[in-house]
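User: Second chain of the day. Same drill as before.
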Amino acid sequence: MTRKEFQAELKRDIKFDPCFLASSIEPKKVLLIIGLCDTVVPTRTGRELRRKMQYPETIYIVSGHYTALVYWYYIRWQAQKFIVKTWNKDAHYAH
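Assistant: Same format as last time:
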């Protein structure tokens, strides 16, 4: 079996759905980012995951999966605020 055939077989046989694990994740420790134009992880799938995770803090961006790079500084800023708020209340984030 070639490497390519092996990868194709794995892709066909192994499916992973984050929704299976969603109920075991503590929502207060999650910042979920959902792209409203995402075709890799469709918006409805992101919303379903959010619901199954008991509604963690969520940022919606008007982009796709890869075009979210346009929001890099905004996402980084929001993530830093979230981390400080959630895990290290005494730390300060860069503005």
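Residues 83 and 89 are 8 Å apart (CA to CA).

User: Great, on to the next one.
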